[in-house]
Amino acid sequence: KDVTIFVITPTYSRPTQMADMTRLSQTLSLVKNLFWIVSEDSQTRSQQVAELLNRTAIRSVHLLGPRPATHLDRRSGRGVSNRLMALQYLREQFTNTSEEGVIYFADDDNAYDIRIFEEMRATRKVSMFPVGLIAKLGLSTPIVSRQTAKIIGFHDPFISRRKYAVDMAGFAVNLQLFLNRPKATMPYKVGYEEDYFIKSLGVQFDDLEPKAHNCTQILVWHTKTSAAIAPNYAYLTKYNDYNNT
Ligand code: UDP
Ligand code: MN
Q1: Burial call 90-123: b when 16+ CB within 10 Å, e when fewer
Q2: How do residues 194-232 score in pLDDT, each as one tens digit?
Q3: Nearest atom within ligand 1 for CA of residue 20
Q4: Complex-level ipTM
Q5: Does 118 participate in catalysis according to the annotation?
Q6: For residue 24, which ligand has an atom nearest its CA?
């Protein structure tokens, strides 16, 4: 039976947004049985994002999840309110259904090898895999035991007090597992979003499924698009002879 991958993308308005979102949409277009939940950190839907979603053949929904006034500070994390809105959408749509799916948080600026989606499609509880370009190590990866082929720890530049030291792009969750854990949620706490969310799913280390050849391949990268100046669309018309004839 076909398992749908529910890709949750938090996004927000800035000069590089459409460059990132266009690239991501064209990556996701190559993946079958995928449903894209685009959730904006905004009070209003961006027209450019809406048009992008209409242009693609990807099944999608366009949600709004603005940060609440109580969580506008830097310590509240990036993209949390909109991810929470996407999770709420999944609960509303699929509680008491037998929908087979996998949830994956795909930030708009990362780079994805489409093979990672086929790796995560078989997730029974929580699957994990390496992410490239993470801070000073350039890597965040589960450590897999050679004897048991189980995940026994993490190699990540920020272990701190985390039990599950993974990046947002480094794990996927079975939809029914999430639906069966009504209290599963993401905290407004920088650095602990992934750890708390996975803990709230009530899984054990033994439940973690290593993917990407026992976590020896990098199929997703935590790339960052550098800040830039937005194109001036008025000038685009003004300096184009074709438009001045
Ligand atoms: N994001 C958001 N609101 C914000 C900042 C970020 O919705 O105020 C989204 C952003 O579009 C991305 C994710 O949250 O999909 C993570 O943000 P970012 O890539 O800037 O964080 P970093 O990768 O530097 O941790
Ligand atoms: Mn990012």
Answers
A1: beeebeeeeeebbbbbbbbbbebeeebbebbbeb
A2: 999 999 999 999 999 999 999 999 999 999 999 999 988
A3: 11
A4: 0.99
A5: no
A6: 1
